[in-house]
Structure formats: structure tokens, C-alpha cells
Amino acid sequence: MEALLLVTANVGSLFDDLEGLQTIWLQEFYEAVAKYKPHFIAVHCQEIGGKDYETGMAQVDPFVESILSSKEMQEYNRVCVYLDQTFTAHTCFTALGSMYFLHQSVHNIYQFDFKVQEFKEVLGKVVHSTHLDTNSMIEKERFPQDFWPEFKWSRKGYIRTRWRLQDQVFDLVNVHLFHDASNLVAWRCPSVFPGNRRRALGHVLSRITNSCYKKAPFLIFGDFNVRLDTQRVVETLCSPATVQTIPTNDAGDVKKVLFQEKGKDHKVLLRLESKTFDYFDQDVFRENNGKALLEFDRELATFTDEICELDIHFPPSYPYSEVNTEGTLYANTRCPAWCDRILMSPSAIELVVKGRPVYDVMGPAVCMGDHKPVYLFFHIPA
Predict the structure, then answer these.
(1) What is the DSSP string of 118-182?
(2) Mean of the per-residue pLDDT values for the chain?
(3) Residue 285 has what pLDDT?
(4) How confident is the model over 295-342, as pLDDT tens digits?
(5) Largest CA distance in the chain
(6) In whole angstroms, how far apart are CA 315 and each of 52, 337, 365?
(7) Are the beta carbons of 193 and 240 closer than 8 angstroms?
(8) What is the spatial distance between Cα 56 and Cα 159, in angstroms, rounded to a whole number?
């Protein structure tokens, strides 16, 4: 049996606090590698270089090199890394990073060349950080601008690779979908932002299942930015409550909404602003791994026939506090949600469920940035 470890991690926070979060993050990653001893590791990163990527991008190469040269990864003697770092190329920049590590004990593994349409042996440790759009070992695309017309520019997109391990062929897709730009809009108009994400995900699925190449099982993992139905969550958490709307100076615009307990105390249950979601009791998102809120996680239901997922038994992966000592606390910025996921085709999940899978978050008790990495470990027959 060959063991696979797939990880998705929005690493934007790591380049804002180099001394603290990077060290913790790497320690948790190495502990997972030591625990599971996988033969093949795929790490899909989003927001490499951080939120201020023009400055933070200079730290990406040292971060990757620290992994490649670490004693914990020395048994992985073949490595393929694809880093989209060219932020000046506005029409194609995605800030995605895909890293693949092959254990020295694995011999029968090959990567697909999309241009010549044949598998090639993986040799050495190679980091690709320029000219990714013409690199024939990947498919990379930034989403068309009309997918998110409200904003002038976006770095969202996907990177696809194809592998053959033993006799099993499969695609691995790194993806970053559009976020909710405003809590107030998400509450008042719940279809706006999910519609943008559905359009983008549908585009990815159509690309990786078209007739250009022979169809293969696929696993698509990244930051899908899927959110709970904000309107229904607020109704559930704040019922019954009085609603106080506080306008801005501009006529018709809302600055803040307060949901208050009925009665003489008028306790504020929830303060809602464009970038604030401050609920008085965070335990509701952590209790029983947030299971009671899964009924509001319906955004991916549109694609039920095309993609599958293992059952979720971990709390929402975003937005965690970025303070080093607050590893289990959520930030009061967004409604917590399972943004980071590992999805797969029906043919892929048939393989995964037979391989004693583990689907969980990495670093549950420590600060890993605003996103907890999510991983899937499983075996495939040798």
C-alpha cells in the first residue's frame, strides 16, 4: 500500500509574522509527516507571499528552501514545486503554490506532460517559479475578470497536475475561489458571493473533465472560500432579537447592524459590519466541531453529481485569530466556515474510502494563521 498525504493551506498569514507563525506551521507539518509517514505528499498553498505580496513574495523562496533542506524531509529525494510569484503579470497571477514530495522508497511514479501527452519520470528537486503559464507539466489559469465584476482585479485561479502512482492515474488541482467582500451584503443578498464561486468552480470542473485528455479521477483541494448561509445563520443565532441598523453618513448605506436580546438589558448578541462578525459566544462554532452549523453549509450542493467529500468532523477552518497565543479562537471578522476543503470526483472517492482515510485539520490547538490547513491521508494499493 502506498500512503498519500494531501494538504491544503492558505498561507497568507505566514509572511506577515515570519518568526512566529512560520515556525509553528512548519513544526505541525513535520509532525504530520512523521506521524503518517506518507510516500507521496501534495501541499497546495494559496496566497503565497501573503496579503502584501509585493513585499512578502521575497520570503517565499526561503520558506520553500527551508522545507526542502530540513532534516524532516530528507527521505523525500524527488520534489516538484510550482510557485506563481510573478505578481506584475496581472492577467495571469494567482499566488498559488503547489508542492509535491516523493519518498525515496517509491519508484513507480510519473508526472504527466500536458503538451506531449505522456508521463515522465520525476527526477531530483526542482522549483519552478517563472514562466508557469508555458510550463507543460501543469495547467494554470487565473479566472476571467467577468467572474467577479465587482472588483477590478483578482488573483484567484487554479493549477492542475496529473500523476501516475503504480498503475493509478489521478489529477490534483489547487484552487482559490472568490471570498465574501462584505458581511452586510452576504446577510442581505445571500446569493451574490456564492454565485461568483459557483461560476468559478463550474469553470474548473469543466476544464478538468473536458475531452482534451483522457478522463481520470481527480482531487481538487484548496481555499474554496465557501461560507455558511449568513442570513440563515444570523436568524438562527439571533432569534428572537431586536435589530438596530446604524447608517453611515451616506444616504441609504448601512454601517453596522446590532442584534440585541429582547428585554431591559438589550445584550448585544451579534455586531455585524462589512468586515466584522462579532458573535458573543464563539463556543457555538467549536462545540461538537460545529456540527450543528453544517446544515447551513450548502454552497457545494449544486455540484453533488460531480464532486464528493468525506464527512467533516473538524470545526470551521476559517477565520482564526492570527495572535500566536490564540490558536483555538476565531477572529471577529467573518462568520466561521469550512473554507478549506478536499473534494474529489466520484471515481476518486471510491479509491479514497478503501484506503482508511483520515480527513482533519492540522494544528488544531496552535495558531496556524487565519486558516487551519486541512489534510487528507489515505492509502492506495501497491
Answers:
(1) EEEE--SEEEE-S-GGG-TT-EEEEPPGGGSTTSS----EEEEEEEEETTEEEEEEEEE----S-
(2) 93
(3) 95
(4) 999 999 999 999 999 999 999 999 999 998 999 999 999 999 999 999
(5) 73
(6) 28, 8, 12
(7) no
(8) 21
